[in-house]
Each structure stands twice: as C-alpha cells, then as structure tokens.
Amino acid sequence: MLKWAVGAILKGDVSSSQSGGDYEISMMNSKRRLLSVLTLLASAVVLVACSTAPVHHSEGPRPSTSTTLPSPTNSSTSTTTPASITPAQPCGYRVANPSYRHVMWIWMENESYQFIIGAADAPYETALAHRCGLATNYHAISHPSLPNYLAATGGTTAGVSDDGEPSVHPLSGDSIFSQVDTGGLTWRGYVESMPTPCDTVTSGLYAARHNPAVYYIALRPACAIDDVPMGSIAGGALHVALQDNTLANFVFVTPNICDDAHSCPVQHGDAWLSGFLSMVFASVTYRLGHLAVFVTFDEGNADNHVPTIVAAPSVPSGTTSATYFDHYSLLRTAEELLGLPPIHNASSANSMVAAFHL
User: Fold this and answer.
1) Which pLDDT score, from 0 to 100, does residue 4 have?
2) Does residue 207 carry a pLDDT above 80?
3) What residues does each domain of the chain span?
4) How far apart are the first and last CA of the chain?
5) H helix runs in the chain, sequence order
6) Residues 124, 126, 130, 131: what is their CA dihedral angle, to the nearest 10 degrees?
7) Cα dist. 314→70, 355, 357 in Å?
8) Could you tell me which residues come within 8 angstroms of residue 133 by beta carbon, excluding any fewer than 6 positions away?
C-alpha cells in the first residue's frame, strides 16, 4: 500500500512534458505531499497498536515508596528487623514478646531532674526522653556518689556514706556482677579514661568511686579481665563489642568526670551522650533488638529526684511512668531482664519492666 501511494503521488505530479523549472516545482510539491502521507500512515499504525495492546488492570493501590516507623503502641503485633531501627528512632517499635539478653547502664553525675529534662542545656537528653521512655518519679538513694553506685549494684549501700577509695571500703557480699557470673552470664565495665583494667586508684579524669566493680573484693580476679578502659567512642573496646555482637549480658558504662557532667557543664555531658548513644543505637547489637539501655544520674544537686531514661526497641515512644522508682528498681529491672533473682533491697523495689514494655 505504501509503495502504491508513493508511486501515485509522483506520477500525478510529474510528467515528461514539463519544462525544467516546472519540473522542479512539481517535484517539490510531490515531496511535500509524500511527507504528509507518510505522517498519516505512521499515526494510523500507532493507533492500531494501542487499540490492540492488552490492558493490565491494577489489583489494588500501589505500595507507598516511603517508609514510616510504626506508631507507638502497647499491643505487640510484629517484630522489629535490623534495617528498621535507626539512631534517630531507637524506640517505638512493635515487638512481639520482647526479650532482652543485654542490659546497659550509663551513669551520669550530680544533676536533678529539672536541670536535665526540658532544660536548654540538655536538648539531646530531653529529645531522647520523648522518643523513648522517661521515669518521671525516679530517685537516688543517698549522698554523695559512692553509696548510690553501691546501692544500684549490690542492693545496699553497705553502710557507706562517703566517697572513699576501694582501699577504704573493701566490700564482700553479692552484687549484680557476681550474680551474672554465678548465673553463667557475662559482664563488662567500660570505664572512660581509666588507666588500667580494674584500677582502684582515682587519677586524672578517672574516679574510682564511679566504678563500683572495683569495690567488691571477691570480684578482683574477674575484675582484672572484665572491668576495662572503654577507649574511644569510634573504635574502642565497647564500640568493637557492639559492632561484633559480642557484647556482655550486663554492661556498666562509666564516662570520665568531664563527660558525665560532674566537672564539666551539663551541655558538655549532653553532647557526649548524643555522640555515645548514636553509636550504640547504630550498632549491630542494638539493631538486633536485644539490648535495653538505661541512662541515669547517681544523685541530684537540688534534690534526689533524678532523670532516668529507658531506651529499647519495644519501649513505646513518649512513654512516661510516675511510679516511684529508685536505684534499687534499676537493679531489680536488670535482674529481671537477665533472669536473675533480686538481691537485698531490690527484692522490694518496683520493677520498671512492665512500665516500659520491656
């Protein structure tokens, strides 16, 4: 058909009797008409193809290309996956039957609740409390620092009322460290700026009174192995354990006396926590969904009402609890999560497990 149309156009417009000038004009007119015909034919071919192509009907709405985090809820209907947990949103996931095999405590220093939560100098801690969980009625046990560290790890202050060195207060008896050992689990103390493992002498930015494991004399052999310098956030011993998924079951983190805001401004401690916890929440271990993190303060500087933040994937975002909790509660919670019996005053303390959906 196409060949016939072309021939017809050329024959109709060009004859042997035409002069040279008329012949050229006729040829130009013929080419124009030929181009028009070809264009029409091409359009017809496209229309025929479209009319005969199969039609695929959608079977439902297209899936969204964006992803959103599950809304916080106390009803657990799905489990988290490593890809879903991010440092920006470490909590607020629906977790069916949460099970935490690792518990981490991070101890900050000497600030009462009102100077951290909602304070301009502590934007990260305030934001984290809103993204995760906050115990709004949590209290330290005593003053000064050391009795609080002993209460949280041993279930009793052991009658200590000062900040004496381990040589002054060698303690016998149970502790969460010995419980973990007896229970066939593992523990580590990661201590920032500590010169040597299980160092019993305060020096530089290291305060032995903030490292309770060194006070329990029965632990000394294990302490020399398990109470270690933390190293840098980006590549130290704790970072490696988190990334290699070799983290101990119970972890006690002691920042140095600047980074814990003891001897440096609250703003500095808040910035340190931001960098440290971003590393923790981005780690392989946390993203696997089996690490619960607690940030607390040893004592207050106005009163002993101190902030305590609970972060774990199963903690609904924005959870608050006004139940009375204290350092004995922190101990009981860790024991419960790790399947250990409560010791001493932890036996009568309120657990934080149910309140924060752990």
Assistant:
1) 36
2) yes
3) 2-44, 102-348
4) 79
5) 2-13, 20-52, 123-131, 145-154, 176-182, 220-226, 237-244, 266-282, 284-287, 327-338
6) 10
7) 11, 11, 6
8) 91, 309, 310, 311, 315, 316, 319, 320, 321, 355, 356
pLDDT in tens, 39-58: 444 443 333 333 333 333 33
Residue located via tokens 């920006």: 88
- Lowest-confidence range among 24-33, 85-94, 139-148? 24-33
Six-digit token string for 233: 């956030």
Q: What is the C-alpha separation between 40 and 119, in angstroms, rounded?
A: 75
The whole-angstrom separation of Cα 163 and Cα 110 is 14
**Closest of 123, 282, 119, 273 to residue 192, by C-alpha:** 273
Edge to edge, the sheet with strand 319-321 lists: 227-229, 187-191, 250-254, 102-108, 291-297, 308-311, 133-135, 319-321
Which candidate, 152, 229, 226, 240, places its Cα nearest to that of 186? 226
Tokens standing for 301?
């500087």
* CA–CA dist 98, 115 (Å, integer): 32
Which pLDDT band holds residue 309 (cuts at 50, 70, 90)? very high
Indicate the pLDDT class of residue 341, thresholds 50, 70 and 90.
very high
CATH number of the domain at 102-348, please? 3.40.720.10
CB neighbourhood size of 341 (10 A): 12
Kindly report the backbone phi and psi dihedral angles of residue 251, in degrees, each rounded to the nearest multiple of 5, phi listed first.
-130, 125
* Residue 124 pLDDT level (bands cut at 50, 70, 90): very high
- pLDDT at position 29 over 90: no
8 A C-beta contact, residue 297 and residue 149: no
pLDDT at 80: 55
Q: Is the peptide bond before 212 cis (omega within 30 degrees of 0)?
A: no
What does the alpha-carbon distance between residue 190 and residue 228 come to, in Å, rounded to a whole number? 5
